Hints:
The protein is of the alpha+beta class. It has three helices and eight strands; from the N terminus they run βαβββαβαβββ. Helix content is 22%, strand content 38%.
Amino acid sequence: MFERISHIGIVVEDIAEAEKFWSQRFGLKRYAELEVEVEGIRSIFLSVGGTPDEMSIELIEPYDKSDMSNAVARRLAQSGEGFYHLAVEVADVAASSSELKENHMRVIDRPALEPEDSARWLVHPKDANGVMVEGLAPDWR
Length: 141
């Protein structure tokens, strides 16, 4: 079902400080920045070579850390900084979502981040050993 592991999402208090840390301490390079207004987050993507075709980390900061209706802000308030999700690329988002649902997994179908992107899905952490899994099409970025 999975084509490849795309990235690991990490929730952070201060995205600029986190980027500096991961860049200076581990040598990772930024290759993209994303503002997702509908989700109330900003993200920075880093990888070893600074390219999107390799496994990456996504630093995620909520716009409003006091907004407990925002899942990322809520996670940050409850658990602090740290691992948030595992993103995987799938050949067919709709088909893989259906397959997961047929296997009795809680799947949340999500719209595309940008109009030109494909839709995506999330598997609830309770169905994946405590890990939220995000399924994306290979052309998501």
